[in-house]
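User: Teach me something about this protein's shape.
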Amino acid sequence: MEALVSFLQIKAVVPGLGDNVADLDRLRRAAAEQLNGVEPRVAYPRLAGLAEAFRAAGFAGTAVVNQPPEGPELVDFLAGSAAGPLAVALDLGTTHLEATLLDLATSAKLATGHRENSQIRFGADILSRIHHAATPGGLAALHGAIIGDINELIRQLAGAAGVPVAVIRALSVAGNTAMTHFFLNLNPHHLIREPYIPMVNVVDPPAAGDLKLDIHPAAPVWVLPSVGSYFGGDLLAGILAIGLDRSEAVAMLIDVGTNAEVIIGNRDWLMACAGAAGPALEGGVARMGMRAGPGAIDHVEFDQASGALSYTTIDGAKPRGLCGSGIIDLAAGLYLARFIDLKGKFRPEAAGSRLVETPDGPAFVVVPAADSADGRPVLMAQIDLDAVMRSKAAMYSILTTLVNQVGVKFEELAHIYVAGAFGKHIAPRQAITLGMLPDLPLATYQPVGNSSLAGAELVLRDAGARRACRELVRKITYLELNVNQEFMLRFSGSRFIPHTEHRLFPSVPFFKD
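Assistant: First, the predicted structure itself:
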C-alpha cells in the first residue's frame, strides 16, 4: 500500500572532484532507488529550496515525496529522520464536517474531530446555498466559510495530537458534488439546471497552499471525484470503503443525509441514483427533527397492549427532538398502535388525550414539556408525519426504480449496507414496517458507519484505492431521477403504510381503516 505522501530516508554520496553530479540530480537518483527506479519530478518553485536543504543537511536526511496520479514528486527535504508523515481525511458534509488525523507510516489514528458546517448561515440546504452563490460575493463567502471550517478542524486535530499544523503533509476530501464545488471555489450554477452538469468531476490534486489551507503548503489535496451533480465523492468513498467495486455478489449501499443516495452492483457493474428522501429525517422538514447528537431521541417503542411509549436518547441526555431513526420508530409505532392509519393520518379516537391541537394542526405528544431538555414538549405533528410519508415513499421508490432498471430482485441482494448516522441508529424492522425499506431478512441490512470518511482515509493510505476511485467515475452508470417517469409512478404508490401493494410487505400487519 503506497501512501499519498512518503518519507524516504536518504544517504547520498557526498560530491567530490571525481563525482560532479548536481545536487538535485543526486537527490532524485537516490530517491529513485526507493521508487522502483522512477526519478521523482521537482516543480520549478521548489528547485532552489530543495537543493539548498539537501546540501545543508549534508546530503542525508528525509526526502518528502508526494504521489499524485502523474507520478512521484519531490517537495521537501528534512535534516535527519522524521516520524510520519501525517495526513487528514475529511468527510465534507452539508451540515457537519468530520475528520481523522492519520500517521501514514503506521495507519494509526492520532485524533478525530467534527464541527458544524458554518455555511448553514447561508442556507440549511444545498439548493439555498447554490442560489446564494449566484449573489454578488456569494460564492467567495461560501468558499471562505468552508476553508475556515476546515482550518479550524485541522487545528483541533493537531492540538489533540500535540503536533503543529505545518507537519500535516496531505489532505483527502470526500463530499457531495455541490460541497466539492464550494470547496474548490467553482460556480455550482449548472448543478441544479437541466442537464445538471458539474464544472468538473475529476480534479488533479491541488497544493494546500493554493487553497489557503493551514497545513504544509506543498501538501497534496486529494479530492475524491464526483460522478454527477447528485453523486459526489462521498458516495464514491463509500463504495471504496465497503469494497462494493470488488465484490462478486451484487449488493446495495444506501446513504441517507440531505438526500438519499443509493448504489447497486458488484465488481463488474455499478448503477447509482439519488433523490430527496433525507430532509424530513434530519431536521430539514420535521419540526422536531434533529441530527443524531446528544438529546436526540434515537429509538421509540410502543407497548402494543397498553399503547404506552418509551424511548432512548443519544448519550442518555434529556430529549430535545427526534433524529432520523427515532422518527422512523415513532411513525412505525404509531401505525402498529393504530394511532395513525395507512395514509399516515392521525386517528383521534385511538390517540385520545395524547393528541393535542397546535397552530399547525394536530400533534402527538412524544415527550411532555416537564420531561424535555428545554421545557417544551417534543411533538410529532400531522404536517411532520406528512413529510415523513413523502420521504419514506421517495426512499422506497428510489430503491425499487434502481433494482428494476438493472433487473435484480431485492431478494437477490447479498447485503444492503446502510451508511452514516442513519445506518448506525436505524432499526430496519421499523423501516420495513413503515414501507421505507424492502421486506427482507434483517440480517440483509448492515450498518457501516461513516463510509465517506472511511473511504477518504483509504485513499490517503492506498495507491490502489486512488486509482480505483478514478476508474469508478467511468464505470458507474448514473440514473437521473429528476426526469424518470417510473420513479414518479412508484412514488405515488408508496405513499401508504406500508404500500398500496401489501403483498410486497408480508411481514407487516395490514389495517384497512
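Now, about its shape. DSSP finds 14 helices and 20 strands in the chain. The two ends are 60 Å apart (CA to CA). If you'd like, I can walk through any region in more detail.
User: That's plenty for now, thanks!
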